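Lab notebook, entry 340. We have the chain sequence and a SMILES string for zinc ion, and the next step in the workflow is to get a structural model of the bound complex before anyone spends time on docking refinements. Request logged below.

Task: model protein plus zinc ion, output structure tokens.
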Amino acid sequence: MRSLLEVNDIGLYCPQADVYIDPWRRAERALITHAHSDHARQGHGLYMAHKHSEGILKHRLGNIRLENVEYGQKIYMNGVEISFHPAGHILGSAQVRLEYKGEVVVVSGDYKITPDGVSAPFEPVKCHTFITESTFGLPIYDWKPDRTEFDALQRWWKHNAEEGICSVVFGYSLGKAQRILRNLDLTQGPVYAHGAIIEIHKAMAHTGIEFPECLPVDKSIPKENFRKALVIAPPAADTENWLRQFVPFKTAVCSGWMALRGTRRRQNAHKGFAISDHADWKGLLYAIESSEAGNILITHGYSDTLARYLREKGMQAEVLNTLYTGDAANENTEADETVH
Ligand SMILES: [Zn+2]
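Result returned:
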């Protein structure tokens, strides 16, 4: 029997249903796990995605043909039962489950285990084959509780404000920015956001999920207004030219990569907070175990290390080469959305 899912030049393909999942080249029909740019690309004939992705997908990809799907809703394509399940990564993110003649495959997309108060929390889905990401698939990635990192971010902002220094924090406009807004005490001072983030919030309005209002950054705003402020911006805005309007300022980066000191230094930020939209090492192992899958296929990230580790534990695990890139690609896209 043909395999339920295979990889070809276009992407992850289910021949029986004649549908792709997050294809990297043009496909007739694409199931989209989430709206980040390495998973939701231009040019497909039909997109199917969780309904909370609609605004973002249209904001980023224009007037696409899109069918909205609810979590748990069953769709049938040539006998294959397809359903979307919460991945906890960003608003609207989903794992895709496919079942045909008793065989079940789950494609994780990107995911994180701990609830973030914005996206629907990750739900383990039992299957025979689990295709998992591995962006942070090394044991050194071991997230502290979110609260610890957000409290540290709050203290950093407070300290800067007391010195009359603007706090500029970089995080992805889709995912991280909303978590920062949800988790800080915003009564501490004025909160500004880069235009790309304000656009994302407009694109999310249809979901009914609201985020605290931010003031738009505008070159006409006097520097004094920023002295006690927090400014939230995507990583691509981290340029001398854009930052000049906030002088004096300090910068911080919110990213899982900040867990490592060396990365923090290379990014040149004053401060790093290890807050990620991806599972850490323990989170990946939790998802793999709770899938109860006998066969694990590992995509983007530290796939070799994770596959080796699982094989040493007696599991069947292999690397699956794809063109997903985890965090890096989103940064590139956001370069297009910069800087006003
Ligand atoms: Zn993603």
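Notes for the group: The chain has a mean pLDDT of 92. Worth checking against the assay data. Residues 6-140+277-336 form a domain with the Metallo-beta-lactamase; Chain A fold (CATH 3.60.15.10).
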